Structures are given as structure tokens and as C-alpha cells.
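Session log. Operator J.P. requested a structure for one protein chain; no other inputs attached. Running the standard single-chain path with C-alpha cell output.
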Amino acid sequence: MLNPAPGWRALALASPLAYAGTAVTVQAAHPRFDWLQAPLSFYLSGPAGEWLQAAYVLLAAGIGALAWACRRLHPGSWFQACASALMVLGAACLVLTALYPGGSPEHAVSPAMHRLHGAVASGAFGFTLLGMLMQGAVDWRHGLRWSLVLASVTLLVLVIGHWPGL
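Structure written below.
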């Protein structure tokens, strides 16, 4: 088992904090939308949208760093390789989500662009969470039982948040 470099761990831990701080700041700077009702995608093309886009890319780098660090913890496991690959795929989808913002009341896009944004945003959530669940299963077998529970709760919260009618 190889221990990942501290720089990878720091990036994996700091990027979600920077993303959350940027998202809250951009939402506060854009009072025309109700932050409880408007999806975060609305803010990607508005005032200070480039800051949010940069935060998406930084978060994607953090997900990639997490995938790399996890892969180094269990280098011989094909299951771990699949988990890391799914997290990297989710990170790539997150970058595409930032680069191709969907439409908003202030920024119209073509129907094809709107579908592309929706598909890659869903891919970012789905691939990353599936990778986290698989990583949780790997860690669970190695004594870190909390990681599978955390990944499962995260998946449940996102399903509830995105499932129509719940």
C-alpha cells in the first residue's frame, strides 16, 4: 500500500471548501435568483460566472486528486481502478458542465446546448458518486467502514434532491 503525497490530499480536501465558498459568494452577488429555487447552473453564465466556472474546475481537480490518492492506497485492485476511473470520468464531466453552462432566464442557449449541459451535469454527479461508493466498498473491506456509509448517505441526499416529485 503506497501512501499518497500530502499535496494530493490537500487538493482533495481544499477544493470542496473553495467550491462551496465560491458558490455561496456568487449566489449572494446575484440577488435576482432565489438561491433556494434556482439551480447553481443559472449562476455559471451570470455576473461572476467565471469565478464559479473556475471553482467547478478546481473541484474537478480535487476529485481527480482524490481518485489518484485512493488508487495509490490499493494499487493492485481492479475494483479500485474502476472506482478511480469513475471518479476521473465524473471530474471530466464537471469540467464540461462549467465550460458549457445551461440556459437561465438571463442567458438563453440552444436546446442542444441545454441538453448537453444537463447530460454532463448528471454524469458528473453519477460517475463521481458511483466511484465514491465503489471506493467506500474497497475501504470498507480494509476497515474504514465509515467511508461506505458516507458515500451512501451522499448518494441518498442527491437522489432525493434530483428525483422529481419526492
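Operator note: Residues 6-162 form one domain.
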